[in-house]
């Protein structure tokens, strides 16, 4: 900023981060699973105010700079917020229409419990590669797999970990993925060259992940066949289970394959699910509406909370939906997170902290490790993977060039550090979204997202080995 007289020191810049961590810890300890209902948002806004106070009082950063940065941040996630709201409506419509229950019913008969976790990871990976969207994958097939896993007796953290691991593998290497395209474009690396180079770290990360899920599939004790049979009977007693409902997922897949914009695809899928609900589940819509008005029942399915008495406690919890209204806490949190990220950027604190990483960039390993740490740090502070990818790419591009490393190393490391770690952070847009969609808190599924945890470590390991890392001679050698 032109009005910035001096940049805050890294120590001063860490003060808002320390306050945020402290307030979030106290909030989560006090409110538990209800922390997203307002406590976390207040923590973010309070920290934002503290950051603004330091910048304006001691570093002469005008309010207009903060206002512009915050506005730009919020504008950058506007599309994501719209998608999030539509996903809320889609989740409710797919459940009440019987689409998800049908997928669960048939899936229970096909997927053996011993291979459920590994199969879940592979299924989500394949769908995410084809769609290019981890969000869409998790919001559709992910919800169905969550139901199958619960019916088989798996802990929700393990199920969500397998779903997210697979979904983010696909998101990371799909040529249709926005994050993949963004990372390659920011660093000026051809898309498919970027993807091929990522396979060096991504493939072993997925293989290790699948080995863990396969082994644990045999170790974890699951429900008896009798229990699963009871669950299946409850599904059929509550919903009309028919292969005709599978038309909606098929149509959705076709729209995705034709590269139809995400918002249009999700909207049409939601609309089709609503029509199916009226055709196949009229009794359920009447129950939801509290009368005979099918239109009211369908509308409530889209925007509000629904609860059905299935006679099976676990199934009742599974098929309850929250619609678009259920996403509002997440939308509120995203807006507050964008305020904090904007304040940190405008004050110069973000740049001051990230400059610390540059000082440790001596050899090949330190260059990659610093990029990984910086990307993870930006995910924590800006609370948005897109902003983090852009900042990481721009910040390290000249450094990699000066040190003689290829841009594809930067593009790969950026994705290893940013894309896959975003769902592991409770206040990041991805972490909030996946926790909301799957109805599993971020800290609950975090230990089981093995692919997301292994990927950044694999990036550093490959750098240590030096495999396929080319360095050209430079005039100012290290």
Automatic annotation (TrEMBL):
Membrane topology field: Multi-pass membrane protein
UniProtKB keywords: Antiport, Cell membrane, Membrane, Transmembrane, Transmembrane helix, Transport
Pfam family, one: Na_H_antiporter
InterPro entries the UniProt entry points to: Na/H_antiport_NhaC, Na/H_Antiport_NhaC-like_C, NhaC_Na-H+_Antiporter
Transmembrane spans: 42-61, 73-96, 116-145, 197-219, 239-256, 263-280, 331-358, 365-387, 445-467
Gene Ontology CC terms, in alphabetical order: plasma membrane
GO molecular function, one term: antiporter activity
Source taxon at top rank: Bacteria
PANTHER family: MALATE-2H(+)/NA(+)-LACTATE ANTIPORTER, MALATE-2H(+)_NA(+)-LACTATE ANTIPORTER
Protein name (database record): Transporter, NhaC family
Species in which this protein is naturally found: Bacteroides stercorirosoris
Taxonomic lineage from the root: Bacteria, Pseudomonadati, Bacteroidota, Bacteroidia, Bacteroidales
């Amino acid at each position: 900023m032109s009005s910035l007289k001096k940049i805050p020191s890294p120590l001063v810049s860490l003060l808002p981060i320390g306050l945020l961590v402290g307030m979030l810890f106290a909030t989560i300890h006090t409110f538990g699973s209800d922390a997203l209902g307002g406590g976390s948002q207040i923590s973010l806004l309070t920290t934002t105010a503290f950051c603004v106070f330091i910048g304006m009082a001691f570093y002469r950063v005008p309010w207009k700079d903060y206002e512009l940065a915050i506005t730009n941040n919020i504008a950058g996630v506007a599309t994501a917020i719209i998608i999030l709201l539509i996903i809320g409506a889609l989740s409710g419509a797919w459940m009440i229409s019987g689409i998800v229950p049908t997928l669960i019913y048939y899936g229970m008969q096909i997927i053996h419990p011993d291979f459920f976790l590994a199969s879940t990871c592979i299924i989500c990976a394949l769908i995410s590669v084809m769609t290019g969207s981890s969000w869409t994958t998790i919001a559709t097939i992910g919800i169905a797999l969550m139901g199958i896993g619960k019916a088989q007796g798996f802990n929700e953290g393990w199920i969500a970990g397998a779903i997210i691991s697979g979904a983010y593998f696909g998101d990371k290497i799909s040529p249709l993925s926005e994050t993949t395209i963004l990372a390659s474009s920011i660093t000026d690396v051809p898309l498919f060259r970027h993807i091929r180079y990522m396979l060096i770290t991504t493939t072993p990360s997925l293989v290790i992940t699948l080995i863990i899920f396969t082994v644990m599939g045999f170790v974890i004790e699951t429900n008896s066949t009798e229990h699963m049979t009871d669950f299946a009977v409850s599904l059929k007693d509550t919903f009309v289970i028919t292969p005709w409902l599978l038309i909606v997922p098929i149509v959705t897949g076709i729209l995705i394959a034709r590269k139809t914009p995400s918002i249009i695809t999700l909207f049409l899928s939601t609309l089709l699910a609503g029509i199916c609900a009226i055709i196949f589940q009229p009794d359920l819509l009447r129950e939801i509406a509290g009368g005979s008005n099918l239109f009211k029942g369908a509308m409530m399915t889209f925007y509000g909370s629904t609860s059905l008495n299935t006679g099976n406690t676990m199934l009742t919890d599974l098929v309850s939906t929250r619609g678009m209204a259920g996403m509002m806490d997440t939308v509120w949190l995203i807006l507050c997170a964008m305020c904090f990220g904007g304040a940190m950027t405008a004050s110069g604190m973000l740049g001051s902290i990230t400059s610390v990483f540059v000082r440790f960039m001596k050899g090949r390993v330190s260059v990659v490790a610093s990029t990984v740490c910086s990307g993870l740090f930006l995910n924590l502070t800006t609370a948005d993977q897109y902003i983090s990818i852009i900042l990481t790419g721009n910040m390290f591009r000249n450094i990699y060039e000066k040190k003689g490393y290829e841009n594809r190393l930067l593009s790969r490391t950026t994705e290893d550090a940013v894309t896959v770690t975003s769902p592991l952070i409770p206040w990041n847009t991805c972490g909030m979204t996946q926790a909301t969609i799957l109805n599993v808190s971020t800290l609950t599924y975090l230990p089981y997202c093995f692919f997301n945890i292994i990927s950044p470590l694999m990036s550093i390991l490959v750098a240590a080995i030096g495999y396929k890392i080319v360095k050209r001679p430079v005039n100012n050698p290290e």
